[in-house]
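Technical annex, item 7. During the second reporting period the consortium partners agreed on a shared format for inverse folding records so that results from different sites could be compared directly. Each record opens with the tokenized structure and is followed by the designed sequence. A conforming record, contributed by the partner at site C, is shown below for reference.
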């Protein structure tokens, strides 16, 4: 595939959404097409799946998982893969690692099974780079306005999410870059920009 695939991950309130639009703007000169997308929600079935996941009442952990995976399968096939095939830079706000952190490390579902299910859903499309915005979840949750169903989980759940992301970053240090999201937004942006440009370098040679 010709394009470049970058994902942003992190606990609630870590600043992914603001950062992703700044990165997209900064990359305009490097690619003919820059696509900003997110999970859950930007696949064709996304808005309705997102509503059930985030606005509904409590769900069985596997029901929750399969809904995230259903959204991902459709999103990969109809949005991400075609864009990468056209040579686009795809910046995605959350992806398969969120399933490992939230449904695996925090909900306690079997992580190896989740890895296999992620591979099925994505058709093994993997990010070239994952920027992990690491933050104390108490700080992140404080930054939020309205809280959705998952935001309302106890603080221990959010601590397990954070530890899950950090464990995954240690498992795959070649792909992950951990950024300190407690720093001022401009500093986080500069660090993220540096990592993104480093990834572009070899394709320019
Ligand atoms: P957002 O608030 O960053 O848009 O993400 C939506 C919520 O869904 C957030 O609480 C993280 C959660 N989530 C999972 O639990 N598993 C997943 O696979 C994904 C993509 C998100």
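Designed sequence (site C submission):
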């Amino acid at each position: 595939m010709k394009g470049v695939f970058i994902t942003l991950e992190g606990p609630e309130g870590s600043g992914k959404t603001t950062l992703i639009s700044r990165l997209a703007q900064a990359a305009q000169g490097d690619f003919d097409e820059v696509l900003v997308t997110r999970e859950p929600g930007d696949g064709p079935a996304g808005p309705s799946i997102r509503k059930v996941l985030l606005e509904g009442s409590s769900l069985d952990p596997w029901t929750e998982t399969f809904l995230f995976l259903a959204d991902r399968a459709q999103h990969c096939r109809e949005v991400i893969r075609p864009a990468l095939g056209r040579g686009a830079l795809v910046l995605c706000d959350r992806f398969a690692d969120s399933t490992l952190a939230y449904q695996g490390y925090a909900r306690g579902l079997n992580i190896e099974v989740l890895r296999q299910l992620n591979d099925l859903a994505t058709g093994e499309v993997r990010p070239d780079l994952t920027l992990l915005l690491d933050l104390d979840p108490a700080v992140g949750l404080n930054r939020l306005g309205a809280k959705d169903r998952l935001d309302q989980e106890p603080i221990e759940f959010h601590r397990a999410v954070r530890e899950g992301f950090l464990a995954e970053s240690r498992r795959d240090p070649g792909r992950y870059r951990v950024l300190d999201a407690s720093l001022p937004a401009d500093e986080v942006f500069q660090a993220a920009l540096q990592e993104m440009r480093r990834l572009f370098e070899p394709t320019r040679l």
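The domain at 4-203 is CATH 3.40.50.300 (Rossmann fold). The mean pLDDT is 94. All partners now use this format for quarterly exchanges.
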